[in-house]
Amino acid sequence: MKHASIGMLAALGALASFPASAADADLQSLRDEIAQMRKSYEQRIESLEKRLVQAESTSTQAKAAADKVATQTARAGEGKANAFNPEIGLNLQGALTKTTRDPATWTMQGFVPPGEPDEIGPPRRRGFTAQETELTVSANVDPNFRGYLNLALTPGNAVELEEAYFQTLGLGAGLTVKGGRFLSGIGYQNEIHPHAWDFADAPLAYTAFVGNKLTTEGVQVKWLAPTETFLELGLEGGRDNSFPGGARNKSGTGIGAAFAHVGGDVGASNSWRAGLSYIATRPGGRSYEGVDGTGLATTVSFAGDSRTAVADFVWKWAPNGNAKERNFKLQGEYFRRTEDGSLRCSERDTSGACGGAAGITDRYRSAQSGYYLQGVYQFMPRWRVGYRHDRLDSGTPSFGPTLVVADLPQLAPFKPTRNTVMVDFASSEFARLRFQVARDTSRGAGRTDNQVWLQYVMSLGAHGAHKF
Amino acid sequence: MRQLFLVLIVAFALPAQAALNVLATVPEWAALAQEIGGDRVRVASATTALQDPHHIDARPSLIARARNADLLLATGAELEVGWLPVVQRESGNPRIQSGQPGYFEAAGAVRMLDVPARLDRADGDVHAAGNPHIQTDPRNMLAVGEALAARLAQVDPANASTFRAGHAAFAERWRALIKRWEAQAAPLKGVAVVSQHKAWAYLYDWLGLREVAALEPKPGVEPSLAHLALVRDQAATSRPRMVIRAAYNSARPAEWFAREAKVSVVVLPFTVGAPEAADLTALFETTVQRLLKGL
Questions:
Q1: B121 and chain A: CB distance < 8 Å anywhere?
Q2: Residue A339 has pLDDT above 50, yes or no
Q3: Residue A83 has pLDDT above 90, yes or no
Q4: Residue from A136, A324, A328 to probe the interface with B (highest B Cβ count within 10 Å)
Q5: Digit-coded pLDDT (tens) for A283-328
Q6: pLDDT for res B18
Q7: Using the beta-carbon criterion (under 8 Å), do B90 and A60 form an inter-chain contact?
Q8: Lowest-confidence segment of A431-435, B11-15, B81-85, B155-159 by average pLDDT
Q9: What residue segments make up the domains of chain B, in order of their start?
Q10: Tens digits of residue pLDDT in B7-24
Q11: Cβ-Cβ contacts under 8 Å, B95 against chain A
Q12: A320, B50: Cβ pair inside 8 Å?
């Protein structure tokens, strides 16, 4: 076709160059014809050029087509059987500790002992020790629910069910419901797992007021306000099997908690969150083993109202919001607990300040408070330093009419303090080595304990995203 | 009661009609959504160009924004795995949960590079699905843009034609731009370079640059002096022309290497919002110009 047209054009050209012997009219018509043909060729050339341009730009199109095939193949390959397997993660923690006093003699003077001690509070043993090993398993159950399990394997060769809960994914209207056993949403640090803490042990206030952490076994409802500023309200109800509750056999709710959190950004470099929480419970016979004023072994048990209020805040700074290089985190929480009820003190012996085996039941009222404030600074990638100050005030409990404070030496007023300094190094976000020293006066005046920690925290496998 | 219900429904539905609320995890998808959606979308980005998208806190402000989002634009390929799941869960917003139309992953629309043959954290911060920094190849914007326009139309059918038209206009303009950049960048073909972080696989694939080494010993692991010295010694034979880092990377390793190996440092914007990269066009304009200057 192309060749034919060129041939025709050549013939016409020859015709046009004929001597001017032909009639003027013929000449004119020939000229018109040639002009028309030239026009049509120009159009064809133009269209050919256009096609050429398009052909050039198909390097993009070719890539797009090839990519489409490749991505479809890749997608098809994703349907492996283990795609439905849950995410499994493991956190290994251990320490080498040195203390000037025997960890077995640890008490918090002025405060009721906070239940069974665990590995995340003050040191329990000296020397080499494996701390809690956390095994986590989680997955979406279906489009509506997610399930989560956290088992703690303790150095005492026991398995503890730390958390086991389901959570709704899409209730709408900003609502989320959690059910099962879970870390309560009160305060700031409570919901954070020990492997993500900035120090090797819990703040003293957490140890004194909620036994290192408050675990709820029940239901939590959270509502997030549809506002630009973060505002979250939450309610929890459940059984009171953890400190400060305990030992009540009752249908319905044994412990209730409510919390509100607000938060936001200040420029690109700062973000913050603050909150208020309230915990209400009514232990039915929360007891501890102690001694009376004469040194006789006693059992002391409390029944009554226990109310705790918590104020928390955290401020994070990173230049331009890029925390990788340098960042600073300031965090503090204040706890205040009031208890009002009856205290029963009994002894194995027949006589003593607590009235012997028959025991004495008396009224008990207390108002106790405490706080911690800590700052952690990452001064270069992978290296951080931190300082934490703990202070508690036991207040003076009031008894009446029979018992006096001197009968219960554990509850004699005191203000424990602790100062902690730490340096840690993270070889990646999954491995951290920490050196920590603390001076702890919890045991009472003149019984200061100096503690040195060398700790490792390693995270393997699927590692869930961390909260703020 | 029923009336109250109606009032509530209307009250909740009204703001959604005004414009589609789009929350992007990184600025490039925010910019792309803006190009396609125009005034039919209200776009916000969770991060800026000066932040490392691997390491973001699930800040309260992000959770609050996710609460009201109609569409969540993520890169996927595990780039946001350290923080986005918390934001999704805490938002209490059913529209943006994984698997819903309101959750979009850009990586699903393109061919992934650097897909690891084995998964082992001993290899550093590896991503099972491949290198997630897909935005460094402008051709990927076309593929992601097409998928995004279809998704926008699905989430907001009332404005489907607007999104289609927006995408068509963008794609036409973008193809012409790619052609121009490719012509300008021709001298870069086959040039040996050193990267600070393995963030540029797609850029190199596009322009034909050759990565001979990375300053990070493993992805996500900070460069150590020992490793830097090793890369410097290798440079004697591999002869890189420049060392490339993103605007959010620490300046020191690249500068040290540039001094030692006597090559130039090229700071690339990496994403929209970095200096001299106000929008998608400027992002690649600056990238190409700075690479050419580094020759």
A1: yes
A2: yes
A3: no
A4: A324
A5: 888 888 888 888 888 899 999 999 999 999 999 999 988 888 899 9
A6: 73
A7: no
A8: B11-15
A9: 8-179, 186-293
A10: 444 444 444 457 999 999
A11: 170
A12: yes
Could you tell me which CATH number the domain at B186-293 has? 3.40.50.1980
Say if the Cβ atoms of A468 and B109 lie within 8 Å: no
| Interface membership of B187 toward A (CB under 8 Å) | no
**Per-residue pLDDT at A86 exceeds 90:** no
Q: Which segment, B46-50, B69-73, B226-230, is predicted with the most confidence on average?
A: B69-73
**pLDDT digit string (tens) for B191-209?**
999 999 888 999 999 999 9
Tell me which of B110, B177, B181, B203 to substitute to probe the interface with A (most A C-beta atoms closer than 10 Å).
B110
ipTM here: 0.85
B contact residues 254-283, partner A, Cβ 8 Å cutoff: none
Q: Which residues of A touch B93 (CB under 8 A)?
A: 170, 172, 174
Q: Which residues of A touch B92 (CB under 8 A)?
A: 171-176, 222-224
What residues does each domain of chain A span? 2-77, 89-461
User: What homologous superfamily does CATH list for A89-461?
Assistant: Porin (2.40.160.10)
pLDDT in the model for residue A447: 92
The two tokens of residue A297 are 């072994």
User: Residues of A with CB below 8 A from B65's CB?
Assistant: 228
Asked if A261's CB is within 8 angstroms of B60's CB, the reply is: yes
Fold of B8-179: Rossmann fold (3.40.50)
Mutate to test the interface with B, among A56, A63, A171 (most CBs of B within 10 A): A63
For residue B172, the chain A residue with the least C-alpha distance is: A57
Q: Which residues of A touch B128 (CB under 8 A)?
A: none
Cβ–Cβ gap B82/A64 under 8 Å: no
